[in-house]
Amino acid sequence: MSADHLPEHPDFLWRNPEPKSSYDAVIVGGGGHGLATAYFLAKNHGMTNIAVLEKGWLAGGNMARNTTIIRSNYLWDESAAIYEHALKLWEILPEELEYDFLFSQRGVMNLAHTLGDVRESMRRVGANKLNGVDAEWLDPQQVKELCPILNINDNIRYPVMGATYQPRAGIAKHDHVAWAFARKCDELGVDIIQNCEVTGFVKDGNRVVGVKTNRGTINTEKVGLAAAGHSSVLAEMAGFRLPIQSHPLQALVSELHEPVHPTVVMSNHVHVYVSQAHKGELVMGAGVDSYNGYGQRGSFHVIEHQMAAAVELFPIFARAHVLRTWGGIVDTTLDASPIVGNTPVENMFVNCGWGTGGFKATPAAGMTFAHNIATGEPHRLNKPFALERFETGALIDEHGAAAVAH
Amino acid sequence: MLLISCPNCGSRDETEFHYGGQAHVAYPESPNELTDREWAEYLFYRDNTKGAFAERWLHSTGCRQWFNMLRDTVTYEIQAIYPMGSPRPDAAGKVTAETGTASTAADSTTTGSAAPSIAATSTSPTSSTTAPEGATK
Predict the structure, then answer these.
(1) Which of A90, A94, A352, B78 has the most crowded Cβ, counting Cβ within 10 A?
(2) Which residues of A are less than 8 Å from B48 in CB distance?
């Protein structure tokens, strides 16, 4: 086919501006959280003279690498509040952003395989209901009715003893979510600057006044860090530490299949989570590689382990093939909860520590972080997630409580 | 998968090992005198280096002994394997020791021991209490 016959290039969703010499605020990190933060800064706080700096291409980090699961069935009040707020935002965002990013509320099931799992799950269902999060307990037969391809026989090592179910949970097309935010940001006047790597910060005493980049120094009154796995690197440049460890987290997809998997299934105990993308790929993920890593790849035995779990739970998958595997760099904390709030550096704010579960929180992370940046004070939803909690001891221990291992 | 050369057993697959996080983190010398900030540093703050990183590994399905490793966290290349209690064997260890910052300080004064005790891995008096400037609220 000759070039004459190619279709017109579609309209670009955002400009590619040169960085200005100064902005009212600069967000470091052009992933989902950074873009959502810029959107809410512009929409809720009227801050439109702002920039999002992305060292690579827009939403090419964890936003491009997650398994797109959205749910809010966390145990503790603080977590349920922020994740449920996120879920409510997901429900209205396609209309607000005027972009159908295929948010599909197909439900999420968290399987229980041991008596301990069953007790923990029922406790979590109770806690969720008290927090206004939709949750129910399913017995194995109900599990089978919702997801017929799941093996509920009791002759496997860890039989399915039931599951929690959140009907409003689901998946969305991650890339489109980023593009939806980026387009709206652009319309509101936000500069999205790709291929712009932060190399340092300019400080006046303990106050940040500028950002050094490979494309020059940008003066700014406020800086918001939203760089996930690279948060520690940025914090070090700014002169403070974060209680973060960066780990590889791997995921994989199969080739395309006809629709066989109607919901999202997560198993903490045998450790795999599986859904089927709109196009037909089986999408799977599990736990992090144990070692610290910035390499966006992990060890193959981790993939092998999660596929063994998947095949035991879904015997039909035995004849599917791994098409692609990849890794992201996730920023884990010791209580498996995020850090959103002020930093020891004046006018510098941080949104990090979302670890293995940041995608689902994208809208609420953006809304609360924008509030924190604009007003200098945390929103009530991110206040418990302050950096100080590691000093005060007011941890939000979602390890093992958040319906999935990290 | 990493191929890890255990000092006692030789090269084995990564699946035989467990990760133990940052090496050379000293147990506080005077625990009763630490502030909440200093306890937070010791309990929750670890270096998250992009590049050469000194870390502990346990050969859990082999000799069950701990050892230290210097590994690049970007390329995952294993640069050195050395006993618990020995100082970090690269220039970064020496530089850090001289400037006295934080917890990568080489614990050159400790005697070698393969015991997994945290206390045995470092005696640097500053490593648990030295926060980078600006870190204290």
Answers:
(1) A352
(2) 232-233, 242, 244-246, 292
> What stretches in chain A show pLDDT beneath 70?
1-3, 400-406
- Residue A280 is inside which H or E element, if any? none
SS (H, E, C) chain B: CCEEEECCCEEEEHHHCEEEEECCCCCCCCHHHCCHHHHHHHHHCCCCCCCEEEEEEECCCCCCCEEEEEEECCCCCEEEEECCCCCCCCHHHHHHHHHCCHHHCCCCCCCCCCCCCCHHHCCCCCCCCCCCCCCCC
Residue B124 inside a domain? The answer is no
Q: Is residue B22 part of a domain?
A: yes
Q: For chain B, how many structural domains are there in total?
A: 1
- pLDDT on residue A405: 53
Test A233 with B50 for CB contact under 8 angstroms. Answer: yes
What kind and span of H or E run contains A264? Answer: strand A264-267
> CB contacts < 8 Å between A and B, how many?
86
Domain that holds residue B59: 3-83
Q: Do B40 and A300 touch (CB under 8 A)?
A: no
Distance from the B27 Cα atom to the nearest Cα atom in chain A, whole angstroms: 17
pLDDT at A286: 87
Decide: A360 and A236 in contact? Cβ < 8 Å: no
Please state the pTM of the whole predicted model. Answer: 0.90
Query: How large is the ipTM?
Result: 0.93
B72 domain residue, yes or no? yes
| Confidence (pLDDT) at B113 | 40
In a domain, residue B112? The reply is: no
Q: What is the CATH number of the domain that holds B79?
A: 3.30.2270.10
* Residues of chain B neighbouring A345 (CB-CB closer than 8 A): 134
Tell me the backbone φ, ψ of residue B109, rounded to 5 degrees: -90, -10
Instruction: Tell me what pLDDT residue B94 has.
Output: 60
Give residue for tokens 């403070």: A240
